[in-house]
Amino acid sequence: MQEHLKTNILNFKWPNSAPTIYLTLEDIEGSHPIHKSKFSRQIKEVFPDADLSNKDQIFTTFTTEIPDAPSIKLNLVDGRELRIYKQFLKHKLRSYFKSKDYIVVKNFVGDVQVWMPSKKGNTADYNLYYKFSFKIQFAKLTDLPELIVSYDGTSKVLTTSVKDIEDSELIKRCVYGQKTFNYQMDLDTEEKQEFYNAIQFDQAYPIFNLSLARALDIPIEEPIRPINKYQKYVALINNFATNYLFKEDFKVIFPFKTDTFIDVPLNRINHIDPQVGLLEFGKDQYGNKKTHLVPKKAMNILNPYRRPNNQNIKIFFICHTSHKDSVLSFYQNLKEGVNTEKNYYKGLEAYVNIKASSSKEHFIEFTNENDPIPEIIEKLESLTFDHDNVLYAAFYLSPFDKFTQNPEDREIYIQIKELFLNEGIVTQVVDYEKMVVNIENQYNFQFSLQNMALAIHAKLGGAPWKLAVTDKKELVIGVGAFTNQGENRRYIASAFSFQNNGLFRKFEYFDQSETDLLAGSICKAIRDFTSVAEADKVVIHFYKEMSYEELKPIIRGMHTLGLKIPLYILNINKTEAEDIIAYDLNWNKKLMPVSGTYIRISENQFLLFNNARYPNSQRYSDTDGYPFPIKIKVSSPDEDAFEDADVVLELLTQVYQFSRLYWKSLRQQNVPITIKYPEMVAQIAPRFNNGVPDDAKDALWFL
């Protein structure tokens, strides 16, 4: 079936006559700053007596006349003045929705975000708001101005005011009138102090956060995730556009070419051949190589590519005393499979091709579920492990799920993971309550067991599968990040030497500020790789746009090594909270484009769809998920890096391939492991008390 791709962009017309704006050197009432990066020749000419080189900004009231003040008619061909026109449109956009009494804020990338009150989902404790963002751009995908309309999720605003909340430390962001503010903001400027002093606490309402909700006894519900995010997203932006944007007063600001989201231009769409994502599994008994596109199907009929490098594997359990009677049932299901008519999991040995036995002498039980670590340490010190001959895996039956109220309870598994990692033992957490429910529902339980078996196989050093197409000698380095919201601190981690077959070698992690250490470790990985193999190129997958300050020491290091191989930087972003998506109207209303579809959305910037929907596939299971595309920006410090027209396709293909190597779950991921694995490390490792042991930096214990 021929695809029909639409995107969340509305075309609007260029103005018949460019607006005339009024300028002033002083910040007067009703004025807006114009940053010095927008100082055009025309602006400099209307202030002949002022030295603008010493000013960071001047001011404008846009089209509101200032007596005796200079004015300019914006030249929309001039890049600087086009940016002022964009600023003017954003001002008009904010003013329009504020005049309708809606909450209007900036989203995390500085675009206009509007909060629309929900008619459903409100409770006595909070009111629900749907959030929509606008991004304005000019002739990126078409030859007209473009308004991108995106859905940013929901927020719950409490009905209890700041005045009536006793513990102010739990209050984070609040709604105040038509704006939001951070209650815990630093009062380090006169402007912030003035704003804070003017707040009427009985009119400020906190936005829902877990700690505050628990303190106020607000019921915490596990979020209901839509089966198909595309359907919800597209329905919401279409309804929003119909009800609020395709109105005559709004179209005075944005005169739409048509009242509909645009089709993706055909010359911007291309496809990666699905066969480059082919995966290699274990050979059959006759030595024949076995390949497959879909791990979920392959693992039912093929063996993993490579077993852990030890024939002797033992499993033991850690659990609360009250849960030890459930251990046997769980172990029997893990080891022998499930009892259900449709049996896709026939046991650990059958599924991941390893022999494993229980190690009853290492069983650990504890009595204090809120502080089990002292008991576990005491028991651990009395145990003996035969690390020379045996690989061990510990299953921890956690009494707490990830939504548990006490944050200290959520940290117990991290402490256990570190404790056993220091002993050279990998761990797997099992949510006890969910396990008990699943044991009753054997059909569903088998899918959890599949993922656990897969992860344990990889944690023990096995390789469930690898890329089958490996014709390049490339060093691929991934850098991911995780922000600890409690600390308001970001950690970064890097995963090195994914090579051309996708097999992982080593990782490091750092505080966000330690960019020199990150650069040094990247240079070391390049040196180690090139000392044993000739690389065609070095590719860095980065979780954000790499700054020159971050890139400079890497370039310097490559020059020091005398390497003249090309360096490519791929900035890879998830789009769940980003601006632009695309969807296929010709796929049974499921909307997700075919896997491998990529769209050029601007110069060297692309949307790439990574999913399990392949061309000509007759059936698609909802359990395979509907991941959104990722946004990729390709750059290089080398002047001739893009002379070869095929290099961009090669780089996108590499991202596509690396998204197929995730070993924590059988579900297809949209983000490559070069970003995903470092993000997981950055989430866990900084919470260890003594860091990650050196001998664990080449293992996948974090899965």
Mind explaining what this structure looks like?
- This protein is an alpha+beta fold.
- It is built from 18 helices and 31 strands.
- It has a nine-stranded mixed sheet, with helices on both faces. It has a five-stranded antiparallel sheet with strand order 2-10-9-8-7.
- A hairpin with a 4-residue loop joins strand 23 and strand 24 (489-496).
- The longest helix has 21 residues, at 79-99.
SSE map:
Blueprint: E1 5-7, E2 9-11, E3 20-24, E4 32-35, H1 41-45, E5 57-62, E6 71-73, H2 79-99, E7 103-106, E8 112-117, E9 126-138, E10 145-158, E11 173-176, E12 179-182, H3 190-198, E13 204-206, H4 210-215, H5 229-245, H6 248-251, E14 269-271, E15 279-281, E16 290-292, H7 295-298, E17 313-320, H8 324-336, H9 348-352, E18 357-358, E19 364-366, H10 373-381, E20 391-398, H11 407-410, H12 412-421, E21 426-431, H13 432-440, H14 442-459, E22 466-467, E23 474-484, E24 489-496, E25 506-511, H15 515-530, E26 537-542, H16 548-560, E27 567-574, E28 582-584, E29 597-602, E30 605-608, E31 630-635, H17 647-658, H18 673-684
Parallel strand pairs: 17-18, 17-19, 17-20, 20-21, 23-26, 26-27
Antiparallel strand pairs: 1-28, 2-10, 3-5, 3-6, 4-5, 7-8, 8-9, 9-10, 11-12, 11-13, 14-29, 15-16, 15-22, 23-24, 24-25, 27-31, 29-30, 30-31
Helix pairs in contact: 13-14, 15-16
